[in-house]
Design a protein that fits this description.
The complex is a heterodimer of chains A (181) and B (496). Chain A is 70% helix and 0% strand. Chain A has nine helices and no strands. Chain B has 496 residues and is an all-alpha fold. In chain B, strands 1-2 form a two-stranded antiparallel sheet. In chain B, a hairpin with a 4-residue loop joins strand 1 and strand 2. Classes of the chains: A mainly alpha (181), B mainly alpha (496). At the A-B interface, helix 2, helix 4, helix 5, helix 6 and helix 7 of A face helix 8, strand 2, helix 9, helix 16 and helix 17 of B.
Chain lengths: 181, 496
């Protein structure tokens, strides 16, 4: 499921996968940054014991995170590695950021255009972006989108509101679309 | 006997039977698709089950949980790709058997071993229930706090070679759980004056991000692949009896599954690993393990299928989930105002029994389904992986957005999806985050509740069960540190 199948020689050269060092630095910076903010983001309540202070459990979490992140970075720095692997992996992470954006675009469009129309358009568009070009694949994606909407909204009645555009539809159809699609 | 009949009467409803059927067959299909897995499916379906009756919602999810590993064995045996992560060891012996032209025999053995493990664990549960019902009330706040702590310690130490990062992720989970309003003092913690953070970060949002969205991102970014498996010729009935040539392996492996499943934070991987190692040691032909040994296949499948039933023990008896899937189920219990814990065993034993019986029935349903539909399921395996990514991303939206129609929830899920993506790329574990969140919450509440009766630190462990749990934690940490020191000494000797 992953394209990270390293060569045996590469494994022998490095005990850590590429990108590990960037990850270690990032988690240490974030953990230490959050720990530095603990006084600002939690309050000290007079008359309460240490265990009942609002800062106690975030403190446990952040101190543990910072200590473990520091240790993990030390381990990462000590491991032999190929620097190019780190950079290559970093760019894979950057490339991935496109898909959370697709997801958020979908989230923003659904309440406006409506669940069914958005999904039936979104699935083939994303499928096309994923590399599928044939009419059959795009049609399958649109069909899959329609099935998902019917299954979840019409049959399982999950709470997805009707789109703002549904308001322009005739009365009977509008109610049907809002309730089921 | 009355309790069993009461449990059966709870199940004797058309909607429960339908839920059982849909859950178990759906679980097999989901398990058979490499790259999906029960966690993703349960995370997506979780909000949809909130409108159901507790027993119906739980039966669907239980069905998926209990049957996905059956389905996962199909690609593991036929194309050397585990359908779910816990079928990984099945590939060691299943695939070599397929290459020898024994695919049908391997599948029969996998199904029968899975069935044996599943039934074995449910029977253990039913037999152990009276004992559990008598022990569970002795678990007060202190004991539950220590059981949760034990779960976290185990969640860290079982990740051999990755304990530091597993510990980091557990602490990260504990921290995420603290974001929002501190109910005891009504003060905000790490909300950065953002109102949407005041109600905290929902476990289901995190689960959907870490399991479903991250998997969609992994599939969309990775190479496209469309696995192909040759159809299995001949019936699958003939091989079922072969299991009885290895009664010791099947029983011991199921036993490992039950014991490991009961211990919070351990789960299928450890059960599989221990049972496989044990089966290899006691085998007359240990050299065949990894090269198509039927005992290896039985050890792997019997152990992992015995875990789901046993994992329900800490969840139902103590309200302490042992791994990510039971942690998700805990959310369903809470949504339906069913609070797992000692009280559930005392007051709603018929409900508990109904869940056990549902597990028993679903094992029978799944076996029958698989015996007749394996070749049809092979079509499902062929779904191209990036197409699967599109499907999971679209489905993840339903899961997150339908919770409370919040764009912020979706944004948080997307962030956790990215975090999960990075963790998966680095082959680091995800489950410790979920356990940190769930068990961290339990620990915070139970520690606060127990401190009223504790004057000195020793009071905390002055009751027998608390003392035993404390000793277990100390021993596990000591053994782990000893193992680390031993390994380091060995490495130094080798380098010298």
């Amino acid at each position: 499921m992953t394209d990270r199948t390293p060569d045996v020689d590469d494994i022998a050269a490095s005990e850590r996968l590429g990108g590990d060092r960037y990850f270690a630095i990032a988690i240490l910076v974030i953990s230490a940054g959050l720990l530095a903010l603990i006084g600002d983001q939690t309050q000290w309540k007079a008359g309460k014991g240490l265990l009942n202070q609002p800062a106690f459990w975030p403190g446990i979490g952040l101190i543990g995170m910072t200590a473990c992140a520091a240790l993990y970075l030390a381990q990462s720095l000590a491991a032999r590695r190929i620097a190019a692997w780190d950079r290559r992996e970093f760019f894979v992470w950057i490339r991935c950021l496109e898909y959370p954006l697709w997801f958020m675009a979908y989230v923003f469009i659904v309440p406006v255009v409506g669940y069914l129309p958005t999904t039936v358009l979104f699935c083939p568009l994303l499928a096309r972006r994923a590399g599928y070009r044939s009419a059959r694949a795009l049609l399958s994606a649109a069909l899959m989108g329609a099935v998902i909407v019917v299954l979840f909204k019409a049959l399982l009645q999950v709470r997805v509101p009707g789109g703002a555009l549904y308001e322009v539809l005739p009365d009977g159809l509008r109610n049907f679309m809002i309730l089921y699609l | 006997m009355d309790v069993i009949l009461d449990g059966l009467s709870i199940l004797a409803r058309w909607d429960v039977v339908a839920a059982l059927l849909i859950g178990s067959i759906g679980g097999v299909i989901i398990g058979a698709i490499p790259g999906v897995g029960a966690a993703v499916a349960i995370a997506i379906l979780l909000p949809a089950t909130f409108s159901f009756d507790p027993i119906v919602g739980l039966t669907v999810l239980l069905g998926i949980y209990g049957s996905s590993m059956y389905g996962g064995s199909i690609p593991a045996v036929l194309i050397n790709t585990p359908g779910t992560a816990v079928n990984a060891l099945t590939t060691y012996d299943g695939y070599p058997m397929t290459r020898r032209g024994e695919g049908r025999r391997a599948l029969s053995l996998a199904y029968s071993a899975s069935f044996f493990g599943g039934i074995f664990s449910v029977l253990c549960l039913i037999i152990l229930s009276p004992l559990l019902a008598s022990i569970a009330p002795h678990f007060g706040s202190r004991e539950i706090f220590l059981a949760a702590l034990l779960g976290l310690v185990l969640a860290v130490v079982v990740h051999r070679g990755q304990t530091v990062i597993a510990a980091f992720l557990v602490f990260f989970g504990i921290f995420i759980n603290t974001i929002g309003l501190h109910t005891a003092t009504l003060t905000r913690r790490f909300t950065f004056d953002l109102n949407f953070l005041a109600s905290g970060i929902d476990l289901i949002v995190v689960v959907l991000g870490l399991f479903a969205l991250s998997q969609a991102f992994v599939l969309l970014v990775g190479r496209d692949d469309s696995p192909k498996a040759a159809p299995v010729s001949g019936g699958l009935f003939q091989g079922l009896g072969e299991l009885f040539k290895y009664p010791g392996t099947a029983s011991a492996s199921s036993g490992f599954g039950v014991v490991m499943g009961m211990i919070p934070g351990v789960g299928e991987f450890m059960a599989q690993f221990l049972s496989y190692t044990f089966a290899q040691r006691r085998s007359k032909t240990p050299e065949k393990f990894g090269d198509g040994a039927p005992e290896g296949l039985i050890a792997s499948e019997a152990a992992n299928n015995a875990v789901p039933g046993a994992a329900m023990i800490p969840l139902l008896a103590l309200g302490v989930p042992g791994e990510a899937l039971t942690a998700m189920m805990l959310s369903v219990f809470y949504v339906h105002n069913v609070v797992p814990g000692p009280q559930l065993f005392q007051n709603q034993m018929d409900f508990v029994m109904a869940l056990y019986l549902a597990l028993l029935i679903l094992n029978v349903m799944v076996l029958v389904f698989l015996l007749f539909s394996t070749n049809t399921l092979l079509q499902v395996i062929r779904i191209p992986t990036r197409f699967l990514g599109v499907m999971i991303l679209t489905l993840a939206f339903v899961g997150v957005y339908s919770l409370r129609n919040s764009v912020w929830d979706c944004a948080i899920a997307a962030v956790f999806g990215f975090i999960g993506f990075v963790l998966k790329r680095l082959q680091l574990p995800i489950v410790p985050i979920i356990l940190g969140m769930v068990l961290g919450r339990i620990m915070e509440v139970k520690l606060r509740a127990s401190m009223a009766r504790v004057k000195t630190p020793l009071d905390f462990i002055d009751r027998p069960i608390a003392f035993i749990l404390f000793c277990a934690i100390v021993i596990i940490i000591a053994m782990h540190v000893r193992g680390l020191l031993k390994n380091r000494k060995q490495e130094r000797t080798e380098n010298a």
